[in-house]
Amino acid sequence: MPYALIIMLGSLSSLEGSPRTEDLKGGAAVQLYIFTQDYSSRGKKMEDSLDEVFAAAKGAGFDDIQGWLSFYGSPEAAKRTAGLLSKHKLTMQAAYTGGAMHVDEKAAAAIKSIVDQARVGAANGLKVVIMNPDTVGREKTDEELAIQSRNLNLLGGRLRELGLRLAIHTHDPEMRSNAREWYHILKNTEADKVFFCLDLHWIFRGKQDPYKLLEDAGKRAIDLHLRNSKGGVWSEDLGDGDIDHQKVAGILEKIGYKGLYTVELAYEGGTKPTRPLEENLARSRAYLRKMFGK
Length: 294
Prior knowledge:
Oligomer: single chain
Strand content: 15-25%
Distance between the termini: 30 Å
Structural class: alpha/beta
CATH architecture: Alpha-Beta Barrel
Mean pLDDT: 93
Helix content: 40-55%
CATH class: Alpha Beta
Low-confidence stretches: 1-21
CATH topology: TIM Barrel
Number of domains: 1
Number of strands: 10
Radius of gyration: 18 Å
């Protein structure tokens, strides 16, 4: 579809033909973060090699990728993204972004930017915006959490008008004080406007119980970010380790999970890769089939 037509469709308030929330197909996806690490280690920028990145994801056996909402941040970026998805026969059901939601002035700007980009993404098959509210280097105050939840409801409502879902992602800072911030969002946002992307290992690293949070999210869980570790150190591919994925699979069956299974590899100082990245992604893809049937 020519980009000009995409923009025209995206400008319609009703967004006729845009994906509806019930159209989320779920299944396996790969988050592209690991490619930023891989290219950075070679003194390159992933964004300069998206054709190669998309080809590697497809070659590893994935039909769906998870990039960044900024892939739809300009006419040029959107045209490039749409072209590469088509070329490699890929979809991008979900895209990641951030923004300050705990301060009204900053939230207003973030919401506008997210909605503008998501409108273009919706015309290109986007169905979920994965959003990690900005952290502040400390626990947020009760007032800041209240403001944040109010703005997340607002953003979720605006995205719902586009036929999209908002899914909240967190790292370990939000796990402080028995996951106080995460539970505030769960309890103080509307279930039909705000959903969750649970990054199970960041929950684990934040010293909380990933299985409990997954059960508590219930049907509001629509994406999982999956990596594992052995002895607390991130593994080079997704496999058995500190997170019991068989236990996770049992919980997902219990809650009737229909969302995405997103492999998000990441390497840290103690990670010592022994195989090429594409091989590790292919092994991770095979593990999804074995463990989750996806």
